[in-house]
Amino acid sequence: MDLNVQKPYEWESIKGPYEIASYCIAENSNLLILLDAWLESPEDIGEDYAWTTMSFWAHRLLPLWQKQEEVSTNDQREMSVVICNRTGNENGECYVLRLCCITRIMQYAGKKFCGSSCNFQMNSSSGKPGLKHAMGKDEEGVSLWTV
Fold this sequence. Notes:
Layout: H1 19-26, E1 31-36, H2 51-60, H3 62-65, E2 78-85, E3 87-89, E4 96-99, E5 106-108, E6 112-114, E7 118-123, E8 130-134
Parallel strand pairs: 1-2
Antiparallel strand pairs: 2-7, 3-6, 4-5, 7-8
């Protein structure tokens, strides 16, 4: 299972489907750990963190933090989400191909991973994802987070 929708479905930002989030709810899980190798987004080039990608991850988990009206306190759920994303370059090769005059975004010929491993606390009564910890795009190592 993946954050990205599986064929034959097509993803719509409001309707989903939100397969992995729905699965976690159905299984009454309180912890989700994802091991990823997402590439750097052009919007995040020059940033210390992959904000665009982390926001995308959180949005794909919308059912875990979407505020539910008319939900009793007993039915509110809280879930820790840990996303471990690869950092660095594929085969050690990554170089600037060109600087686009229109968007002023550097375009890479090699594959650069966006790093930014993070920990979210998702609460169905909050109406927003809670980013608790994040590593930088180029930060390598192990972080210990209490969830």
